[in-house]
Amino acid sequence: GDGLARLLNWSCVVLTAGLCVSFGARHATRGAGLLAGLLFYSTPLVGVMSWKCGVEPGWAFFQLAAIAALARRVSDPEGPATWTVLAGVLTGLAMGTKYQAWPAGLILAAGLAWTFPGTFREKIREAAIFLLIAALAAAPWVFKNAILYGNPLYPFFHERWAGDAAPRWLAFLQDAEARDPLGVLTTWAGFSAWAAHPWTVSTRGMDLGPTLLLALPALALARMRAAPLALAWAAAVGLWGTWSLTSSFSRYLLPHLPVLALVLAIFLEALPARLRPWTRALIFTAALANGIHAALLFRSLGSADVVLGKTPAAEYLKIARPSYHAPSYAAVEF
User: Tens digits of per-residue pLDDT, 1-48?
Assistant: First the structure.
């Protein structure tokens, strides 16, 4: 029913925050896990997506769960490959949410091969098992597109696959703030826009909070030698890197925020003890600012009145709002 549907995205957000706590407690310190979970959960965009019908919360959960499963595998390389298989399934499920999640398969496979203790052959074998399972888990969506649209990558490159009218997928990419990787690497304008993106994306609307700004220095300075932590670091670098080179859309960064928050929190908790009160105060201040902004945003959208019963849900759904530009509820009701 409607109640279960409303709880689905929020549940994914809560589970992802719980995974942050669990990962930190198992592979670093409990404090690192708590700080990462707090920073992720308080992010204003996370709060907004908790009650909207977007796929990013599910993508975030499946992706972080896959990273956690791989971390268990590299910490116990002598055991069965069960964790690798589970990670492959979870990655495939993440890939099924959006095409933008597809780079995770290659990034996590590379991270697994890099951090898995063993010979070169064993590393490649483990990564190949992971990739095969991930591809099989994601395959139903590709087959569905091929059967229904005649294009396994629908709507992309539809003009090459089918003879009917092609969707305006290039225009869609521009609407989703796509970035040209070649332009970043070959033009000053492209490179300067990319170099400034941590500031511009974080301060535009303030919906991401300071996580990205704080995490990037940690990525550059962190020295994570234990295999599970090195895997998390590699995943954070790869996921942020592919996102930043192909997009500036903050919603597509949301699934990568948990691992960025984890790397940041683990890095801060590894600093000398005399600095920890200050670094923890920094995270608590960031989380408090996030929470205040999220509450104000929630209030400005009029959502609080629906939750409190002051406005009927049907009336709310008929009005265009910043988060709901083209309401179709009136037409559906008619």
Answer: 666 777 888 899 999 999 999 999 999 999 999 999 999 999 999 988
How open is the CA angle 256-261-266, to the nearest 5 degrees? 135
Give me the helix-helix angle, 2-27 and 56-75, nearest 10°: 30
pLDDT in tens, 119-164: 999 999 999 999 999 999 999 999 998 888 888 888 888 777 776 6
220: number of Cβ within 10 Å: 9
**For the chain, first and last CA: distance in Å?**
21
Judge whether 244 and 191 are in contact, CB under 8 Å: no
Given a contact cutoff of 8 angstroms between Cβ atoms, the answer to whether 57 and 50 are in contact is yes
Q: Give me the amino acid identity at 244.
A: S
Buried b (16+ CB within 10 A) or exposed e, 191-216: eeebeebbeebbeeebbbbbbbebbb
Write out the two tokens for 139. 């395959």
Q: By C-alpha distance, which of 315, 263, 321, 279 is closest to 40?
A: 263
C-alpha to C-alpha distance for 88 and 101, rounded to whole angstroms: 13
Q: Which of 144, 260, 276, 266 is nearest to 211 (CA)?
A: 260
- How far apart CA 325 and CA 116 sit, in angstroms, is 47
Q: Are 245 and 182 in contact (CB under 8 A)?
A: no
- Non-local (6+) Cβ contacts of 246 within 8 A are 100, 178, 179, 181
Q: Which two tokens stand for residue 156?
A: 């992309």
Q: What's the angle, vertex CA 228, arms to CA 225 and CA 231, rounded to 5?
A: 85
> Which ranges constitute the DSSP H helices of 28-81?
30-42, 44-49, 56-75
